[in-house]
């Protein structure tokens, strides 16, 4: 699923997905939302906030980590405010 | 590994989406390939013009050199003395020219995205949150 948020000011924002190219609408700004890394000591994958560095989630596989991350940072997810608030 | 992508003010790229937005927002007298006049009586050819009930002037769309569309309006004359959106007026959501312009851009973008990705086989679901953001979810 691809989720986009259209603001009352006329802006569009989303978690980057190559199926939707916002450049057709004008100049875009892209910033990293998170880091997905393998924790060698713990032998598991981690999802960390790019803004705070805090590890938010741990998963046994990269696919599970990416899925969690995608859900967390979607417009309806708990992490969306971190991305959209100044 | 995700990235956050934003476009702070989306350009209008689809004339038909603008027309659909005008209809949704209650604008009437929607005309294509027409001429409009401004406060000073100056005429200009535009691709689309629409009028809010009770407003003195049109909101118009004109194609620019980049192939996108510029929205042209004397927004004071567009909003006029009669309120377009009584339900939103209660929420004081359209108090300024920028508010109205933003709303038109927002709804136009919604229609643009839905039409474009429907052609690619996506199904769109639309919702509005408490901050009046419109959320469009695309699934295949």
How would you sum up this structure in a few lines?
With 86 residues, chain A is an alpha+beta fold.
List the helices and strands of chain B in order: EHEEEEHHHEE
Uncertain stretches of 5 or more adjacent residues of chain B: 90-94
Q: What value does the average pLDDT of chain B take?
A: 85
Largest interface: A-B, 40 and 37 residues
Shape call of chain B = globular
- Tell me the total number of β-strands of chain A: 6
Sheet with the most strands, sense and barrel status of chain A:
3 strands, antiparallel
Give the uncertain stretches of chain A in residue-range form.
none
* C-alpha Rg of chain A (nearest Å): 14 Å
Strand content of chain A: 25-35%
Oligomeric status: heterodimer
Q: How many strands in all of chain B? A: 7
Question: Over the alpha carbons, how many angstroms does the gyration radius of chain B reach?
Answer: 16 Å
Spatial sequence of strands, sheet with the most strands of chain B: 2-3-4-5
Order of strands across the main sheet of chain A? 4-5-6
Annotate the secondary structure layout.
The complex is a heterodimer of chains A (86) and B (140).
Chain A: E1 2-6, E2 12-15, E3 29-32, E4 34-39, E5 44-49, E6 55-59, H1 62-72, H2 80-84
Antiparallel strand pairs in A: 1-2, 4-5, 5-6
Chain B: E1 3-7, H1 15-24, E2 28-37, E3 43-51, E4 58-63, E5 69-73, H2 75-79, H3 86-90, H4 97-118, E6 123-128, E7 134-139
Antiparallel strand pairs in B: 2-3, 3-4, 4-5, 6-7
Helix pairs in contact in B: 1-4
């Amino acid at each position: 699923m691809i989720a986009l948020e259209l603001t009352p000011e006329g802006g569009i924002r989303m978690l980057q997905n190559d199926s939707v190219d916002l450049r057709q609408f004008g100049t875009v700004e892209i910033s990293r939302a998170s880091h997905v890394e393998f924790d060698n000591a713990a032998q598991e994958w981690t999802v960390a906030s790019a803004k705070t560095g805090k590890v938010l989630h741990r998963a046994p596989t990269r696919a599970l980590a990416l899925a969690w991350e995608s859900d967390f940072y979607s417009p309806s997810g708990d992490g969306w405010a971190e991305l959209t608030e100044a | 590994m995700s990235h956050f992508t934003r476009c702070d003010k989306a350009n209008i790229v689809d004339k038909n989406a603008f027309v659909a937005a005008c209809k949704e927002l209650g604008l009437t007298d929607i005309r294509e390939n027409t001429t409009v006049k401004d406060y000073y009586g100056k005429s200009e050819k535009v691709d689309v013009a629409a009028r809010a009930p009770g407003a003195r002037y049109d909101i118009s769309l004109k194609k620019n050199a980049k192939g996108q569309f510029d929205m042209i309006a004397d927004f004071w004359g567009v909003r006029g003395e009669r309120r377009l959106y009584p339900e939103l007026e209660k929420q004081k959501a359209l108090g300024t020219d920028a508010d109205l312009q933003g709303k038109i851009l927002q709804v136009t973008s919604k229609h643009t995205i839905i039409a474009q990705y429907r052609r690619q086989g996506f199904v769109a679901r639309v919702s509005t949150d408490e901050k009046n953001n419109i959320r469009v979810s695309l699934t295949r």
